[in-house]
Design a protein that fits this description.
single chain, mainly alpha, 0% strand, EamA/RhaT family transporter, globular, EamA_dom, EmrE-like, 79% helix, membrane
């Protein structure tokens, strides 16, 4: 696969993930939150099961333990976003979930007890201004839905850091598929405890669930794994930062969601803060990629 095709595939995955906020909100019209999580990841796991069966020899206890933990985090992330969508817009959810890029370096610095780099601190400050403009209402309070979406971003940052550790000790493909199964299992368990497990009752709900499971989860995870073998971390990071933009575009065209001017300014500040926080890492990745290409003889 050529790098350009890989970048386009990453862009397609980003578009799919950007659309997920809209489809989760649509699913809430006839399904409860834990049911959506159970169906989304349960169906995705079943679709990926043939791949897991072929790779069963690479499954060990470490893979299962890490997958269990990652699956629970994935369940918690999706549940937080879905409950958040009950009290906020798909646009807001997309931009706030994008805060994961800010939380990852902050948590990394906290774990290794190292002061965050200056660009990360600047990015956080700019992002905080954006969050205020995007979420604060006239009474200077944040809606519970917005808070849950920020919690989801924090949980997903933990998921990313744990995945980095797990990838060193387990097969990454099996890890990705098994975590889908565990996430779906947690969704089903919580649906039995707090809700009534059920299937979608309308065409729109079935459509939402199938897009979430087939397109956003099964296709998204597999396509990301394949594409990242043929493109650079720099390109991948930049393309993934467009996810909240796609979330806002889908929400505008298909749900007719409009943010006030203050909200769009806040969203722009959040994107700017994310880019500032990432710029040093992206520059370092770019230099590494160029050096690697030269050593491989890909550049004159």
């Amino acid at each position: 696969m050529k790098p350009l095709k890989a970048d386009l595939l990453i862009l397609l995955v980003t578009m799919c993930w950007g659309s997920s906020y809209l489809f989760m909100k649509i699913g809430l019209d006839s399904l409860s939150a834990f049911n959506i999580v159970a169906l989304r990841y349960g169906l995705a796991f079943l679709l990926c099961l043939p791949i897991l069966v072929k790779r069963y020899r690479a499954i060990n206890l470490k893979t299962v333990i890490f997958s269990f933990a990652l699956g629970f985090l994935l369940f918690a992330v999706s549940s937080s976003i879905i409950f958040g969508l009950k009290n906020t817009t798909a646009s807001n959810a997309g931009f706030l979930a994008g805060l994961t890029v800010i939380f990852v370096p902050l948590l990394s610095a906290l774990i290794v007890k190292k002061k965050p780099e200056s660009n990360v601190i600047a990015g956080v400050l700019v992002t905080m201004v954006g969050i205020g403009l995007l979420t604060l209402n006239d009474r200077m309070s944040i809606m519970p839905g917005d808070f849950l979406c920020m919690l989801a971003a924090l949980l997903y940052a933990i998921h990313i850091l744990l995945t980095g550790s797990a990838a060193k000790a387990a097969d990454i493909v099996n890890l990705g598929i098994l975590q889908l199964g565990f996430a779906g299992g947690f969704g089903l368990l919580f649906a039995f405890i707090y809700e009534v497990p059920m299937l979608p009752s309308s065409y729109e709900s079935w459509q939402a669930v199938l897009v979430l499971s087939v397109v956003c989860s099964a296709f998204g995870y597999i396509a990301q794994t394949i594409a990242q073998k043929y493109t650079t971390p720099t390109h991948t990071g930049l393309i993934f930062s467009l996810e909240p933009v796609f979330a806002a575009i889908f929400a505008y065209f298909f749900a007719h969601e409009l943010l006030p001017i203050k909200g769009y300014v806040g969203a722009a500040f959040i994107l700017l803060g994310v880019m500032i926080a990432e710029i040093k890492r992206l520059n370092a990745s770019s230099l590494h990629d160029r050096s690697k290409e030269k050593r491989s003889g890909l550049q004159p």
